[in-house]
Amino acid sequence: MSNVLLSGRAFLEGPRWRDGLLYVSDMHGDAVLSVTEDGQACTVVEVDRPSGLGWLPDGSLLIAAMAQRAVLRFDGSELTVHADLSSWAPFDINDMCVDRHGHAFVGQFGYDMWNGARPAAAPLLRVDPDGSVHEAADALRMANGMVVTSDDSTLLVAESVGKSITAFDLAADGSLSNRRVWAELPDYPDGIAIDAAGEVWVACPVSDKFIRVLEGGDVTRTIDVPGRRAIACAVGGSDGEVLFMLTSTTQGGRDESRQVLGAAVETERV
């Protein structure tokens, strides 16, 4: 049985562990939160529909603002637009991963998901530290959760519609190459995280579970969260051995999520 660290939120996304705190976006609560290991939550900054999170080398927080289609920068006191992606992304942007050099990789829906449009492939975008926007890779099938491996050599991207994790060699200048399938998955992935052993944890919202996957696709562990959607995850904690699992009783609809307040952070030792 998982432990509930935090509950009563609208819809949580984009978890990142940093400097003794878990940072999460309450996507439909319109705020970025920090959470201590004993479950004390604090609002870091209010943002309309935040999703992916990351940091520039100077410590500034980057936030993917989904509906605004912009990457915002919060320096601890002021919230500004770091990059406007509206001309690159016709629909909502999504999760984001920032490498140690400050390159932010941003996924996008690529289609009008909320109004029932058919899925369409779309580019993965890269925002450089100076705020310039570039196409990092083309034709991803709804890029969602992303992580960089511990040696900074590889970017892993969960393609939700593609039911796979795609790998790219990652250069110091943020360029990607050697695109390949890292793992075919048994279910649609949402958020992902990587542990100290290099295995990838995958949130599977359709089947209400988190799985740990090896390169090649072997599943080595499953954590079921019956009746709750598995949305995203992060590995952290003071000893680096805690899986923070973001779950929800809703599928992400804004009005329902704000009414039900069924989102939670659950934990499991890994």
From TrEMBL:
Binding site for a divalent metal cation: 13, 144, 190
Domain SMP-30/Gluconolactonase/LRE-like region: 13-248
Example of a GO MF term: hydrolase activity
Active site: 190 (proton donor/acceptor)
Keywords, alphabetical: Hydrolase, Metal-binding, Zinc
Cofactors required: Zn(2+)
Residues that span the membrane, as ranges: none
Gene3D superfamilies: TolB, C-terminal domain (2.120.10.30)
Keyword Transmembrane: no
The keyword Hydrolase is assigned to this record: yes
Pfam families associated with the record: SGL
Record note on cofactor: Binds 1 divalent metal cation per subunit.
Domain of life according to the entry: Bacteria
Family from the record: Belongs to the SMP-30/CGR1 family.
Protein name in the entry: SMP-30/Gluconolactonase/LRE-like region domain-containing protein
